[in-house]
Amino acid sequence: MLDRRSLLGGVAAGAGSIAMLASLNSGARAAGSPVKVGSALPMSGFAAADGIEFKNGLTLAAEEINAAGGILGRPIQIAIEDTKEMGADIVTQAMQRLIDRHSASAIINGYNVGTNMVEMDVAADNDVIFVHYNTLISHNTKFLSDPQRYYSCFQGDPPEFYYGPGFLLFLKSLIDSKQWNPPNKKIAIIPSANEYSIVIANAIRDRVKEFGFELGLYETVPFPTNQWGPTLAKLRQDPPAAIAVTHFLPQDLAQFMTQFLPEPTQSLVYMQYGPSLPAFREIGKEAVNGVIYSTVIGCLPDEFSAAYRKTYREKFGANAAFITGSQTYDGLWHYALSAAIAGGASEPSNKEQTRKISEAMKRLIYRGVNGIYHADPKGQSAFCYPTQIKDPSLGMAHQFLQHQDYRTDPKLIAPALYATDTMKLPPWIKA
Question: Which of 308, 330, 338 is nearest to 320 (CA)?
């Protein structure tokens, strides 16, 4: 029999999680009253492709958890509220409906944009566990403003700030390893008009000199956008060594590449998050070959996650984006194990039990299909490896991937500890 105290050191996903949860359940079947877990997701609107994958991740995790006995014999039941075009008011209302209509004792979201992290207030006012993947430093700032109030709020990945220094460190590593000989030291930065993109862009801009680069173009574009002509004209007038597009919608980024290639500059093209989604490849096709992107969270293409990846695509389709669904998948598993360790799920407004679950989530070092979740006390988000923390057993890997053939999955090229392939010079760059 596993001892609950021993589980607080760490636990692995997949078969390990299932075995440990089953042991905590002492063989009990998931036949008790349901544990309601809510999720406020963009099931319609411009981010619906992500919303669908976030729902898929929750669905798969709930099936596995229930098959292992649920949370101490209580099955998980998922409730979804659509956040549509998102924004503070819409997301707040969706979160509150999950509590008022569905009695959700925990809420596990993917991301919602334009919220200013008001979701944390809904969770705090109702004493429910809240896990999200907004990937915002503003989560950490808000948590630190009143840790006692926001005790139940967790960001399941590192904040977006670490994309900035992580990108510069990556470029420097390409130069040091002689994989890339840049024609100059200029970096062009192209954010879109939203908090996530701007924070990343500014984090790059503010540290370019520290890493031996210089700032070329800094151009903010509308959100969303597919009209890249004016920006491309400026890039062609003063070609940089690298272009960092921190806008993140896959359909817009694919349009950037189709408009870039007729007259390309001799630049590495780096993009933010969107290239991880099938829509990027489906729209851009050959034009996306050579694009580099990164994510501070995504299913690692390793042996550890192989069963999850196989099951996900068998269940949801050959083109399903397991790299996105993996976020809520890990989030629900982390919550379920923590609730079982803490003695059971809570109900809304049960502060005593919710706090016990929160303490278990903070202490549990969880190895999911996305890597390591270990709560940073300065914000209750994941540590970022290698930019923030040097120990890979305590940080979530900042992954750099490249589309080398749009007909196949992208290749993981950094960090070195996790890389499966090496970078290839994009086809538009003359060797």
Answer: 308
